[in-house]
Write a structure and sequence with these properties.
Elements (H helix, E strand, L loop, with lengths): L2 H33 L1 H6 L3 H9 L4 E8 L22 H31 L4 E4 L2 E3 L8 E3 L5 E4 L3 H4 L2 H17 L1 H14 L6 H23 L4 H9 L11 E2 L6 H8 L6 H25 L1 E8 L1 H4 L4 E10 L5 E8 L2 E7 L5 E10 L5 E9 L2 E4 L2 E4 L5 E10 L6 E14 L1
Parallel strand pairs: 1-7, 3-5
Antiparallel strand pairs: 2-3, 4-5, 4-6, 8-9, 8-16, 10-11, 11-12, 12-13, 12-14, 15-16
Helix pairs in contact: 1-3, 1-4, 1-8, 3-11, 4-7, 6-8, 6-9, 7-8, 8-10, 9-10
């Protein structure tokens, strides 16, 4: 894709990110009140979906218009397409600046994540994917994409009561079960891609806040923990906003907002079903529009020899060398057909290449390139009719003693062509 095409895709993706992320930031409170925290969190999926659909790859459709037939000696085997004008230098410069910014943002994210994991210090395994850190001010937090680990603060058993400990573990285990670390990684990649966007950092914070609110609601609904016990666990949790890529129980959201959310009723099941159907419908509609918008139609004027590049043929052929057992082949081809693995009587490697060009008269111009040991042997040419068998024999005839039949040393090919 050209620099202009890539820049256009980047502009469309930026517009989609602006509209969808901005809409979610404005509507998240009302969505949470009407549909519940889990449904509001799920609707954030619209943002990466919209960005991905704007990056749908271009699929090109060539429309071939036959040109006047010209002499075979001057036939051009390639479509006569006017070369595209080189993109202005500023477009390549903008793309380079964006790429350097995205790569730099990703590098900073990786360095921050590595520093955070190292800052946890030595970890002591507690079993079932739970570890205790050496610092009282780090955790509880879920870290590790490939090997998720729940890291608890060093004073976990002293700070939290028995029921509060169950609430904290249920919270982090729900993050791990839902794969929230991978969704957070996707959000981090979007922030790196849109490093220049003023909404990127704010949208990521709101998304992480809605993730915590949804997890709180789900824990109260599934684990049978009372809102009072859960609120006390939240009050004892260190607010840690320095987790680059993880799920910290005290990170990302306002404590007052989370405690107020504990008193809200869970959304009915039909609300979650409506959200799921809405996401599926938006994905299908967006994919359909992206497919239609990414169609690039190119009109090409071609010579008869060049028209074969856009026309498919069903080829049925038998080919043999030096009167050996014929090799049978049935294939649909678009463009030249190359055959290897042939051997003559002396064991030399032979090959054959066939190219097909439709003629205005309805006949098919067939050109062959026959060779052995990398050296050309013959380049015969014939006209064939669709559906009619043709035979090509290239070589020397040897008359057997006392017989009228001749054996051919060389290539023998029987073929039938049909438009596919």
């Amino acid at each position: 894709m050209s620099a202009a095409g890539l820049l256009l895709r980047l502009g469309l993706a930026t517009l989609a990110f602006t509209l969808l992320a901005g809409a979610m930031m404005l509507a998240r409170r009302q969505l949470r009140l009407r549909l519940g925290a889990s449904a509001a969190y799920a609707l954030w999926l619209l943002v990466p979906l919209g960005v991905a659909l704007c990056c749908w790859p271009v699929h090109r459709e060539l429309i071939y218009i036959p040109a006047l037939e010209i002499a075979a000696a001057h036939a051009d085997p390639a479509p006569q397409i006017v070369a595209a004008v080189a993109a202005p230098q500023w477009q390549a410069g903008v793309l380079l600046v964006w790429l350097l910014g995205a790569a730099g943002s990703l590098l900073v994210l990786c360095r921050r994540q590595h520093a955070f994991v190292r800052s946890l210090g030595p970890l002591r395994a507690e079993g079932a994917g739970v570890w205790t850190g050496s610092r009282p001010d780090a955790g509880p937090v879920l870290v590790g994409l490939l090997r998720p680990r729940i890291v608890l603060p060093a004073d976990f058993t002293r700070r939290y009561g028995e029921r509060e400990q169950a609430a904290v573990l249920a919270h982090e285990r729900l993050h791990r079960r839902r794969g929230d670390l991978w969704w957070n990684a996707l959000a981090a990649l979007l922030r790196c891609a849109f490093w220049f966007h003023p909404l990127a950092a704010a949208a990521q914070r709101r998304y992480l806040a809605d993730q915590e609110l949804a997890c709180d609601s789900a824990v109260l609904r599934q684990a049978g923990i009372t809102p009072r016990t859960y609120a006390e666990a939240l009050l004892k949790t260190q607010l840690d906003a320095g987790v680059p890529l993880g799920c910290g129980m005290g990170a990302a959201s306002s404590l007052q907002e989370r405690i107020r959310n504990l008193g809200q009723r869970a959304a009915p099941r039909r609300a979650r079903l409506v959200v799921a159907l809405a996401l599926a419908a938006a994905t299908a509609a967006g994919a359909s529009l992206a497919w239609a918008a990414s169609l690039d139609t190119v009109t090409v004027a071609v010579t008869p020899a060049a028209a074969a590049a856009g026309k498919a043929y069903r080829v049925v052929l038998d080919i043999s060398v030096d009167d050996a057992a014929p090799r049978h082949l049935e294939r649909v081809v678009r463009g030249p057909l190359h055959l290897d693995g042939l051997r003559d009587a002396e064991g030399h490697a032979c090959s054959a290449e066939l190219s097909f060009s439709p003629m205005s008269s309805g006949a098919i111009d067939v050109r062959l390139r026959l060779g052995c040991d990398g050296r050309p042997v013959s380049t015969p040419r014939l006209l064939a009719r669709a559906g009619d068998p043709v035979t090509v024999t290239v070589g020397e005839s040897i008359r057997k003693p006392g017989a009228f039949l001749a054996t051919t040393r060389g290539f023998k090919l029987r073929m039938k062509l049909q438009p596919a």
